[in-house]
Amino acid sequence: MDYILSIVILACINMIAVLGLSIFTGFTGLFSLGHAAFVAVGAYTSAILTYYYYVPFYLALAAGAAAAGLVSLVIGVPTLRAKLRSDYFAIAILGFGEALRVILENLEITNGARGLPGIDGFTTLPVVLVCLAGGVLVARNFLRSRWGAACIAIREDPVAAEMAGVRLFRTRLLSLVVSAVYCGLSGGLLAHFLSFIQPVMFTLVQSTQLLAAVIAGGMGSISGPLIASFVFIGLPEALRVAQMWRLVAYGLLLVLIMVYRPQGLMGYSELSRFFRKNGNPEGRSRS
Amino acid sequence: MTAAGRPLLEVAGLTKTFGGIRAVDGFSFGVTEGSITGIIGPNGAGKTTVFNLVTGIYRPTEGTILFEEEEMGGLRPDAIVRKGIARTFQNIRLFNRRTCLENVLTPLLQREPCSFLGALLGTPGTRRMERELHDRAMDLLASLGLERYADWQANTLPYGLQRKLEIARALATEPKLLLLDEPAAGMNPEETRSLAALVSEVREKFSVTILLIEHHMDLVMNICSPIVVMNFGALLAAGTPDEVRANPGVVAAYLGKGKKSHDRTAG
Known about the structure:
The complex is a heterodimer. By secondary structure, chain A is mainly α. Chain A has a domain at 2-201. Chain A has helices at residues 2-27, 35-53, 57-81, 86-106, 125-144, 146-156, 158-163, 168-194, 204-217, 223-238, 245-260. Chain A starts with a helix and ends in a 27-residue tail after the last helix. The A-B interface holds A 137-138, 141-142, 144-147, 149-150, 152-153, 156-157, 159-168, 220, 268, 282-285, 287 and B 55-57, 76-78, 81-82, 86-87, 89, 93-99, 102, 105-107, 109-112, 114, 116, 119-122, 126, 130, 148, 151-153, 156, 169-170, 172-173.
C-alpha cells in the first residue's frame, strides 16, 4: 500500500511540473528542453530553507516556487527578447539547465554532487492533492484570462497576435515565469517527499520526460498532459515485473501515441468536453 | 462621397530596402479621415510592404509615417494597434484552432485592464468582465453575420467567412484606421459585390476609416475614393476613380505599354 501511495504522490508531483510546461509549450507554443532546471531550483531552495534555516514548510515551498520564477527570468529575458524561434529557444534553455546543474554540483550549500540527505518528509498525499487541484484551477483561470488568450494567440500565429494587440515579449516571458513557478512548486514537493535530492536528478532526461508528457498528452490541453504524465510515471512501475522490458514498453507507448495520435491523447480539447451536453470534441456545434 | 476631413494618415518619402531591392521607394500618400482609400498596382508594386510598414511589422528604411500627427515608424505592431490601426492579411491569419468567438475575444481582452491575481483566482469581478466582453464579442460577430458560427473552430469556416471573421477580429481592437489587404481575394463576383456593401457598412457602423489593397477593379472603382496607384514601389497616380482611369501612366502600367515595349518594337 505504501508503495502504491508513493507512486501516486510521485505521479501527482510530476503532474504539477507537466502542468506548468503545458502552459509554456502546449499553450504558448515554445519548446523547452530545460524545465527540469526549474524543478531543481524549487527543490534546492525549499530544501535548503527547511534543512538549514528551519523555515516552515509552506513558506519554503512558496519560496522555492518564487525562486524558480526568478531564475527563469535569467534565461527568459535575453532569449525571448531576441525572439528566438521555438527550437532555438529549446536549445538555449537546454544549455541553461545543464549549466545550472553543474553549478549545483559545485556549491557548498547544496552539498555538491553528493546531494542533500535527510530533508524532512513534509510532503503527504493531501498536501500534494491540494497543490495539484489548486494548480489546475489556477491554470484554467490563467488560460481564460487576457494573458492566457494572448499565449494561445501567439501559439496560433505570432504576427496576427501582435496585430490583435498582444505584447509578444512580455506574454512569452510571463508564460515562462508561470511555468517555472509550477515546476518550482513541484520541485519543493519532490524534495520533501524523497527526503534526498542530488543534482543528477534534474538532467536533460527529466526535462525530456516532462516535454514528452505534454506532447503525448496533447498540446493545448490541460487534462491530456496530466493523464499522459500519470501513465508515464505509473506504467514503468506497473511493469516492474517485466524487468528491463519496461523501459522498452515506455518508449513503445510514446512511439505509438505519436504515430496514431500525432495531436496527442486529447488533442486540443479537454476531458470535460466529453461529458458536456452536446459535447462535440471538434469544437463545432449544431447548425 | 469623400468627406473633406482631416488627414488621418500621412506617409512621406517612405522607403524600404531588402538587400539591394527597393520594395518601397520614396512613396508618399495620405488617407483622409472617413474615406475609403484604395491602393492598387501591379503585382510586386510594394502594396503589402506599405501595409507592413504602417503596421510596424517592418521598420522603414527611410521616411515618415504620421498617424494623427504622431510618428509610427519604429513602434512595435502591438503599440501601433493600441494607437488605433488594425489590419487583415492577404493570406488569412486567424487563430485557427480557436473558436470564432475566441478569435474576437482575444483582442477585446487585450484592451481591458484587469488584475493578474484576480484573474488567476477567478474573482467575481473578473467573471463579470468576462461576461461583458463575451457579449461584446457576440455583438461584433453578429454585425458581420457570424453569430451562428460563434463556437465553430475558425479553420472550419468557409473561406469567405474566414475573411469576415478576420475583419471582425480587427474591429475588436476598436481601430480608427482599418487596413484591408485584398479582402476580396479568392471571391466570386457575387461575393465580391456583397463584400463591397459590407466594407461601406463597416465604415458607417464603426465610424472607421478604411484603406484597402485590391485587385478586383470593379470593387475598387465602386467604393474607393480616392485611389492611390503604386508601381515599382513609388506613387504613380492618385485621385478619384475617374481621374485614375483616365491617367495614361496607369493604363501603361497595367497594359504594359511602357517604355520597354517601345524599345522592344524598336529593336
